[in-house]
């Protein structure tokens, strides 16, 4: 089924988790997780609503292939060493 995990193995894992944490703690964790997901969705929707009204159109960048490949420059950048006079 799920990569070699049967429903019985999942039920056994679920039973062990319930024995370790207890149903009350699992209920609290589920409620906290649900609240976090709702808050995340609300924040994303609010950001989309606010961002679409105030956002400026973005600049478009063109990626044209040069017709002549001889315009390629090979540049090696080096850092200048600072002398003691330039630091003062």
TrEMBL record:
Part of the twin-arginine translocation (Tat) system that transports large folded proteins containing a characteristic twin-arginine motif in their signal peptide across membranes. TatA could form the protein-conducting channel of the Tat system. Residues 76-88 have a biased composition (Basic and acidic residues). The Tat system comprises two distinct complexes: a TatABC complex, containing multiple copies of TatA, TatB and TatC subunits, and a separate TatA complex, containing only TatA subunits. Substrates initially bind to the TatABC complex, which probably triggers association of the separate TatA complex to form the active translocon. The chain crosses the membrane at residues 6-23. This is Sec-independent protein translocase protein TatA. It comes from the Bacteria. It comes from Halomonas binhaiensis. It is a single-pass membrane protein. GO terms for cellular component: TAT protein transport complex. Keywords: Cell membrane, Membrane, Protein transport, Translocation, Transmembrane, Transmembrane helix, Transport. It is found in: Cell membrane. It holds the Pfam family TatA_B_E. GO terms for biological process: protein transport by the Tat complex.
